[in-house]
Amino acid sequence: MALIDEKDLKKITEFNGNCVSIFIPTQRAGKEVLEEKNKIHLKSLWKEISTKLSEKGVEKSEIEAINTPIQKLLNNRDFWRHQSDGLAIFAAKDFFEYYNLPLKFEAHYYINKEFYIKPIVPIFSGDGRFNLLSLQLEEVKLYEATKYSIGPIEIQDSIPQRLEDRVGYDYQEKTLQQKSGATSMGQKNMHGHAGADRERKDEILRFFRAVDQGLNEYLQQEKLPLLVACQDYLFSIYKDANTYQNLYPEVVPGNPGETDMIGLHKKAWQVIGSHFESQKREKIEQFKEQHNTEKTSAVVHDIFPAIHQGKVDTLLLENRGEIWGKYDKETMKVEIEDQQNSENISLMNWAAAKVLEQNGQVFLVEEAQMPEKNSKINAIYRY
Fold it and tell me: What is the pLDDT of residues 221-232, one digit of tens each?
């Protein structure tokens, strides 16, 4: 599954012009896909957006330049058969990018001089993305997952798919012969049986090292937590073979081949879900503990200059909230306005983009969970 990365985000946030950002929820399968409801949803939104652009005085030639790649996407039947949980589109006269993302968006569009990235913040702040390795001696599969979704990653060309691919097709026959010999000779061959077990473990270790080596290049791209689903005895061997620094220390127990992908995802989230939920909780608790000190702020006029200076470690943004206004980089002054107009911007969007650019963390928080509820934006400072 191709996902947006830091380079993509930089390209999006640096572009200026008549920018259109579109977010729609999508379905991976089922009746909605067969009836092309995702496609119909985008088509309906684009009709509304093009009218808005005309009302804003955007020239017809520029609207047509935005329309052309959108129509091409609408006419791509294969594209609409392979969706994730949400579709994000960033379109302008000289810019067009789209991403199938494992996020459930609320249908929304934003027209302004910059693109709107607030809805995709969870992709960049550890809010639920992980890799899941389904590990069997007969088959190896890799998935990318979030709290709400799971999808396969193509790795067949990178790793051996089964033990025999790594150690040779005579391995299983040799193992059966060793076990048969141990049984027929009784107690006399107990040491031989132990030796066969050691040899079997060594062969599995070699196989897992090949798997680890083959996965490493892909895993290093985003360094997501790697959760392994396998039987307990195999996990102890895989830990010896593993070199990836973000291997999750707990295993999804049992044979992953005994359940389907959806069942496996459910079991995986039961193991790793608390890890992700704790990150946001810890930041909320940190804000509460340090509230009314110099290490935190819920004052918009203080937070934006601090972001500009690179002082903000973590932003907590009200999920459905918005702050409209202007920020003057020269004077570091904030001007807040009641609603969106052609001259202002989403200050929360600007704040999220800037903090992510500075390698900070940004979390979308429901209104009831905001530590300082009188403000739509809470900040924890680096210093």
Answer: 888 899 999 999
